[in-house]
Amino acid sequence: MVLNPEHYNSKYSITAPLAQDVRAIGIMHLKAWMETYIRPELGITGKVIQEKVGYIASQSGADFRLERFAEQEVEPDKHLYRVVRQGSRVVGFLHGNENEETVDLSALYLLDECKGTGIAQELMAEFLDWSNSTKPKLLEVVSYNQRAINFYKKSGFRPTGVESVFLGVFPYIEMEHA
Hints:
Blueprint: E1 12-15, H1 22-37, H2 46-53, H3 59-74, E2 79-86, E3 89-98, E4 103-110, H4 119-130, E5 137-142, H5 146-154, E6 157-166, E7 170-177
Parallel strand pairs: 4-5
Antiparallel strand pairs: 1-2, 2-3, 3-4, 5-7, 6-7
Helix pairs in contact: 1-2, 1-3
């Protein structure tokens, strides 16, 4: 899918991932974590993020993504993975999956430079179109990521009241599509 040039910068495209994207997605994912989640006042530094989620840019992270890509190939109605490119550069991605009880938006990440361009809305529209199941649509978001929470609310998600802590450090809330 190429973004509508009437509304968005046509230099961005959203496509299914390619096997050669696995490393670039991991590097971009870690950079997005660094841009979004550092909060020294909460004790969350770049070092903490690297220690807790640095694996996403490693070979094990690449292997995990390759498994997700394969699942999408075998069961496209159960797994959705999209990559956002600016030219040949990976600048974002989305991962969704349907399980027995829910449809989960597992990840939606963009680099800061792409926020506010409409790309997130395009990704969300694709996720909601794909997840046409009557099952609840859920996501988890770091509780201090107010920009993402506001975006999800505009997209029809509401907090469920479920809160927890990811990896013992990152507080998050669960949201459900209304």
